[in-house]
Amino acid sequence: MTEPEDREGVDDTQVRRGLACLREDVDALPLSDPGLVRSRGEGRRRLARAAWLAGGAAAAVTVVAVALSATGQSPPDRGIGPATPPPSASTRPSPAPTPSAPATSSPAPSPSPPGPSADDEQMPRVGTQPLLPSSLFVAASQWSSAGLSGGAATAAAIGDWEGQASVAPCDPDTAQDGGAGAGRFGIVSVADADAQRFFGQQRVRLLESAAAAEAEARRLQGAFAAGCTFPNGTVTSTPGKPGSYRLEMTFKDGSAELVLFVGVTTQRTPGAVSTVVVTALADQEAGFAEVERLLALAAQK
Amino acid sequence: MGTAEVDFDAFYRQTVHRVVHLVYATTGDLGLAQDCAQEAYARAWQRWSTVSDCDDPLAWVRTVARRLAISAWRRRAVLERAHRRHGVSPPVAAPNEDRMAVVAALGALSAPVREAVALHYIADLSIAQIAHETDTPAGTVKARLHRGRAALAQALREEESRHD
């Protein structure tokens, strides 16, 4: 009679042999030229940039990845597959502001100006499991405004997501879902009702304490205030009110510049810190007005 | 050609077959595996400055390729359901006859079990590494591997005996 351990060994050999034969199929495939693969990557980059400029859909997310560390948005259920592995050592690096960078305007702001009250809304979102509750995010319907959506309704949207926490260029939160040090974060993306035009994203990171959230907010602000470079260009930052920045991406290859507005605030929930990104506006006054309005709503959460 | 291009090209040449092999075993579809692998490498190049700084760029590519394959698979399942509703048979790519037994045996496993088997036997990941990469407890991975190995071996043995 075969012992269980022997049986496992026999099975092991059988499985290895079976799977190895698939490798023969693979080895018989012609290897695409890496130059073509790089061209495909460049094509994605150009497409994303064009879609962004056209106010187009999910590419608004992808283009951010051009800048540095990728970004994300996607289906509410992450069940499509396993967690992305960690770029371990590179997760959550410290920001490296340049000496000439503008100073951080102030420590983590907690705006609580008079204004509309934040609503709660159940929304599709992505992030680490278990997903952060929708109640930590600004209701997608409250992104709607004359300035941002022309008064049209807005809704949470879904798309492809590769597991990254990053939501903007120069974003130092490069954690990867499933990676060591990913912590807890979630992202909601907002578009029009047909998901044809994306307006922006909100990332909420939940830390262990209010003090940790304050520190994280300062870290994020420092990085966004400093701006950064990426292989194909530079991101220049212009500060608005404390915690909000206009980021202008210029490209070495002559592509048209891109502008987005980003804001960081701690939230009423202890340990929660929000990063709000508005991608659909280029005008400085309108962009700052919208990101600051959304930050005020996020701070109530 | 710059250093980044040289590094990327070397990385691609050294690893692409392993990624295609992994996705092939996970999906049973060689064409899909090839396309998902290429797309994953294209995305890696898109953000190469970040990916190349990772401890394990191959893990990044592998996971993106698997995610793409699973998404494509889901889209295909929806399409097939639509075809069935309209009484149309979807086009099915015929696998290489020699490999049909292995592909069929893999196809009989549940997706998580098949994934654990592929990651262990093709990507050479340990139980701990699979647990980390799939965000699954190590005990669950161990059980999946045990089940998958036994079921796959049994199916392959039966297939062999039919041909003897």
Describe, in plain words, how this protein is organized in 3D.
- The complex is a heterodimer of chains A (301) and B (164).
- Chain A has 301 residues and is of the alpha+beta class.
- Chain A is built from six helices and nine strands.
- Chain A has helices spanning 4-27, 34-53, 59-67, 146-149, 210-226, 284-299; strands spanning 126-127, 154-157, 184-192, 198-206, 228-230, 233-239, 244-251, 258-266, 272-278.
- In chain A, strands 1, 2, 3, 4, 5, 6, 7, 8 and 9 form a nine-stranded antiparallel beta sheet that branches.
- In chain A, α2 (34-53) packs across α3 (59-67).
- Chain A is globular.
- Chain B is mainly alpha-helical and 164 residues long.
- Chain B has eight helices and no strands.
- The longest helix of chain B is centred in the middle third of the chain and has 29 residues, at 57-85.
- Chain B is globular, with a radius of gyration of 18 Å.
- The model of chain B is unreliable at 87-95 (pLDDT under 50).
- At the A-B interface, α1 and α2 of A face α1, α2, α3, α4 and α5 of B.
